[in-house]
């Protein structure tokens, strides 16, 4: 996880910036807002931070809106390939999984990409 953060954002992940395998979104936002967009390298870092925040807050949303799993960091490593990813099927599968989980008798809240459900 530390290596992925260093490769994607160019900054080491601190001890207080993650819990287990989840990264605090406040740390990602802090990196994103601190970057000046004067070189292509910083623009790519800003875009990676923004995409990572979108994944955690909109697309693959869970009940914790403060953290995001580090498993999505690998997708951001090769910046040129991001536009070729087929994410629609993954989002739809995640929505169906969330809808199946909400049918359980002891479930009180639904997580997942509810924006897709509204659309």
Automatic annotation (TrEMBL):
Top-rank lineage group of the source organism: Eukaryota
GO biological process: meristem maintenance
Signal peptide feature range: none
Domain Aminotransferase-like plant mobile: 18-119
A Pfam entry, by short name: PMD
UniProt-listed InterPro entries: AminoTfrase-like_pln_mobile, MAIN-like
Name listed for the protein in its UniProt record: Aminotransferase-like plant mobile domain-containing protein
Originating species: Arachis hypogaea (Peanut)
